[in-house]
Amino acid sequence: MNKIPSAFTLGIRRGGLEIRQFARQRESVVFTLLFPVILLAIFGSVFKDTIAPGVTFSQYFVAGMIASGLVNTGFQALAITIPMERDVGGLKRLRGTPMPASSYFIGKAILIAVSMIIQIALLFGFGLLFFGVEMPTELSKWLTFTWLVLLGSACSTALGIAFSIVPKSGRGASAVVSPIVIILQFFSGVFFVFTQLPTWMQQLAAIFPLKWLTQGMRSVFLPDSFAAQEVAKSWETGRTFQILVLWLVIGIFFSVRKFKWDRD
Q: Distance between CA 52 and CA 230 in Å, rounded?
């Protein structure tokens, strides 16, 4: 008698299927993976000033784009594609199979993780070759980078799944989700030095995880002396961890309790 695969095993298989389906959508692949690199090329070419001793704008911008990439690849992509899958009945058909619901979510998480790894590699390579972006030399900073990527990806994935219930249709999902992401990017210090933004923008951004992800990434890629230019005059690494965990719990809660497999 054949042993029934576990939910985790099925999730890994589902992840492989998600990756193959994503790879077939060439326009989506190019936009998702290369968009941060394109932005780096534009902003790095336009803004060549040094914003602090030993800190170029490109160095500052790479930190923001990695954090933003976590949101784009996880939250935005899932909050748009899941309603589209729901519209065509794909989720309803999956729900009717023996595959556990958790396997579907594991598959999505695998797709996000692989996409993010490729995106980071492209940003690193492009930044090193063309804009002189410097990589961290301390082990502690690479450890911080690792947990920021893992926790940020998990948080973004959970929130993207949770928010997928908001768009009423797949066709209108992009119109609902994309403006939210763009506004948060402007408010969270992705495109501009965070402390140069109006105070009310800083306070609003501090509610959401993207601000903390960008600040965490700055602690990795910028010298420790730059921490004095942050709002709290420090990197607030512990607080960043706490807020990301809080948003992860919120995302998981609403994903489990409110997720819709078919249209109302």
A: 12
| Full 3-state SS string of the chain | CCCCCCHHHHHHHHHHHHHHHHHHCHHHHHHHHHHHHHHHHHHHHHCCCEEECCEEHHHHHHHHHHHHHHHHHHHHHHHHHHHHHHHCCHHHHHHCCCCCHHHHHHHHHHHHHHHHHHHHHHHHHHHHHHHCCCCCCCHHHHHHHHHHHHHHHHHHHHHHHHHCCCCCCHHHHHHHHHHHHHHHHHHCCCCCCHHHCCHHHHHHHCCCHHHHHHHHHHHHHCCHHHHHHCCCCCCCHHHHHHHHHHHHHHHHHHHHHHCCCCCC
- Domain ranges for the chain: 7-258
pLDDT tens across 117-172, in order? Answer: 999 999 899 888 888 888 999 999 999 999 999 999 999 999 999 999 999 888 88
Intervals of the chain under pLDDT 70: 1-4, 264
pLDDT, residue 242, reads 97
CA-based end-to-end distance of the chain: 40
Whole-number Å distance between alpha carbons of 136 and 125? 14
Q: Are 235 and 144 in contact (CB under 8 A)?
A: no
